[in-house]
């Protein structure tokens, strides 16, 4: 049998690639903008020490820094997305490194602004703020004053900006090793073909009805990571130490507190998420036990967790069909939303297929003056279809925010970002559940929806608990080795999956492959976002236009207010455990529904 190899970037059809030329028409144009920005940096000296001279000088400085940030965003995004097309390409590795270094220079040059403003006499600051054109910065001023105790002196802020590149080193090293250097073994697929295992096709193999394929993929992936486990441990340890250093330097009680304060989210919200999910672990155990029974297995292993419980129903969904399914499922969001979504599919937003060296997974990105972009690694599965809905949710959030907000507030915070993406998934799923008559397909979809809950609320909360425990140990001065990380992870995996799952030795090392751990205390937002999205989707389906208008206003709000306030205006209060609890009640109901469907099928 011929081996199935990944295509090179050049072999991917042009209409399946994103159009980065909409940011810069050529690499030469990028080089010219890079050089122009380098020349702009010294202009910071004419503002330094003069912000209080007049409201006009303050406004001129803020407008200059905002313009510089907007243009830097374009330079960095273009270089990084080019690199993501093929991480082995030295030209784009170099451009990304240069853009990162330029970002540090810009950060260092503009680092005087906040300390200088906070050093002003409160009366003088208030006088300056009354100047009409400065009204656009009112929310930014409020946020600045709120964080006064965490802003350092002028010299210290400059130093913090300059060490930013060092603090990013663990993440950069992990990304390059994980995407460019790691080679996985070949395995035999269900038809007996020799196929190269990749991070992109791993989940596809884990959903295979052939248990041998699942086990080979599982062991092939984790044994590959295990070969460098001490390196992964040292890299993650360095990242955690950088988080702790930054938190201490800025006078926070912990790295967790420091991370959450950016969104003005109390630590109690994080802790309440973990506690509420723990309340519903018995329902998770029920689901796991049902999976074991449905698959007729004496032992349920970790490589049996992703395979659909209804394996005889196969769904092959090519990209074009997946796109149509997403558009149909999102009709409740109205004509304005659908028009923007269709334009995105047509106009070079999406990079569809996996190729050699391409960054794994999926994301949405973009710049203020261009359109959003989506990186996919489409695999013709139901999961890939939902990934399209998810990432286009992010992109439409970006589109509406960029259209409605000035640049300073267009970039929404991650806490609310996951609401837009998971709401899309919820609406598409609800459409499929309400229109499907085939009992096998219905059982398959309920199983898939349960997997979204498992993967987004339970799994991400487990990750969040891992991050909290690892950081807490480091803050106490305890050593974090690869073995220690594995010990923590093994214990949490056993807690979250319960007694009916065999704790395969390989799963203890799963922490080594999770890129989100290099962006500390990020993953809990998937769980809170999923919960908020469940509530908002319910409102849209039940209330109709009124709820849609509230939701579109939310999408257009960017970061013009704090995340919890924006969600409260949209109709969800995340400072209570109610949204998480209500979402998990839906999960419990879905377990009951799947049990009934499987019993009907057996009968």
Automatic annotation (TrEMBL):
Taxonomic superkingdom: Bacteria
Residue ranges annotated for the Oligopeptidase F N-terminal domain, each copy included: 116-184
Domain Peptidase M3A/M3B catalytic: 205-585
UniProt keyword annotations, A-Z: Hydrolase, Metal-binding, Metalloprotease, Protease, Zinc
EC number: 3.4.24.-
Gene Ontology molecular function: any one: metal ion binding
One BP annotation, GO: proteolysis
Cofactor note: Binds 1 zinc ion.
Cofactor(s) for this UniProt protein: Zn(2+)
Keyword Metal-binding in record: yes
Purpose of the protein: Has oligopeptidase activity and degrades a variety of small bioactive peptides.
NCBIfam families: pepF (TIGR00181)
Family designation: Belongs to the peptidase M3B family.
UniProt-recorded name of the protein: Oligopeptidase F
Organism: Acididesulfobacillus acetoxydans
């Amino acid at each position: 049998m011929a081996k199935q190899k990944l295509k090179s970037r050049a072999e991917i059809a042009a209409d399946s690639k994103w159009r980065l030329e909409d940011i810069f028409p050529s690499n030469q144009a990028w080089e010219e903008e890079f050089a122009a920005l380098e020349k702009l940096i010294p202009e910071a000296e004419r503002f330094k020490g003069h912000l209080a001279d007049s409201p006009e000088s303050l406004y001129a400085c803020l407008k200059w820094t905002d313009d510089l940030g907007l243009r830097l965003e374009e330079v960095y995004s273009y270089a990084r997305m080019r690199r993501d097309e093929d991480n082995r390409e030295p030209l784009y590795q170099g451009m990304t490194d240069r853009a990162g270094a330029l970002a540090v220079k810009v950060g260092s040059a503009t680092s005087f602004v906040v300390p200088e403003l906070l050093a002003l006499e409160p009366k003088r600051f208030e006088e300056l703020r009354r100047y009409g054109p400065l009204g656009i910065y009112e929310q930014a001023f409020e946020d600045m004053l709120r964080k006064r105790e965490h802003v350092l002196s002028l010299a210290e802020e400059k130093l913090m900006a300059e060490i930013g590149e060092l603090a990013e080193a663990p993440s950069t090293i992990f990304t390059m090793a994980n995407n460019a250097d790691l080679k996985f073994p070949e395995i035999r697929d269900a038809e007996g073909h020799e196929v190269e295992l990749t991070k992109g096709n791993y989940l596809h193999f884990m959903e295979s009805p052939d248990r041998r394929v699942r086990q080979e993929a599982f062991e092939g992936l984790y044994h590959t990571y295990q070969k460098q486990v001490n390196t992964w441990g040292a890299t993650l340890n360095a990242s955690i130490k950088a988080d702790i250093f930054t938190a201490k330097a800025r006078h926070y009680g912990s790295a967790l507190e420091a991370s959450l304060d950016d969104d003005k989210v109390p630590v109690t919200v994080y802790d309440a998420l973990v506690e509420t999910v723990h309340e519903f672990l018995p329902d998770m155990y029920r689901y796991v036990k049902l999976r074991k029974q449905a698959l007729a297995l004496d032992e349920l292993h970790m490589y049996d967790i992703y395979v659909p419980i209804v394996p005889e129903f196969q769904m092959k969904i090519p990209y074009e069909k997946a796109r149509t399914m997403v558009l149909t499922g999102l009709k409740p969001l109205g004509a304005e939303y659908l028009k923007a979504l269709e334009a995105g599919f047509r106009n070079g937003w999406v990079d569809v297929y996996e190729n050699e060296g391409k960054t794994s997974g999926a994301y949405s990105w973009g710049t203020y003056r261009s359109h959003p972009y989506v990186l996919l690694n489409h695999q013709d599965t139901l999961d890939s279809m939902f990934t399209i809905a998810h990432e286009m949710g992010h992109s439409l959030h970006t589109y509406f925010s960029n259209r409605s907000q000035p640049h300073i507030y267009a970039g929404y915070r991650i806490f609310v970002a996951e609401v837009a993406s998971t709401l899309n998934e919820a609406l598409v799923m609800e459409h499929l559940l309400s229109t499907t008559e085939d009992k096998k397909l219905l059982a398959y979809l309920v199983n898939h929806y349960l997997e979204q809950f498992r993967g987004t609320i339970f799994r991400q909360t487990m990750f969040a608990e891992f991050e909290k425990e690892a950081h807490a140990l480091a803050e106490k001065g305890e050593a974090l080795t690869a073995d220690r990380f594995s010990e923590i992870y093994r214990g949490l995996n056993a807690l979250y999956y319960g007694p009916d799952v065999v704790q395969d030795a390989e799963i203890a090392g799963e922490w080594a492959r999770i890129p989100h751990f290099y962006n500390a205390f990020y993953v809990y937002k998937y769980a809170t976002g999923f919960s908020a999205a469940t509530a908002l989707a319910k409102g849209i389906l039940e209330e109709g236009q009124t709820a849609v208008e509230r939701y579109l206003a939310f999408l257009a709000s960017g970061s013009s207010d704090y995340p919890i306030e924006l969600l409260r205006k949209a109709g969800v209060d995340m400072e209570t455990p109610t949204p998480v609890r209500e979402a998990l009640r839906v999960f419990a109901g879905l377990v009951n529904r799947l049990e009934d469907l499987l019993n009907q099928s057996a009968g």
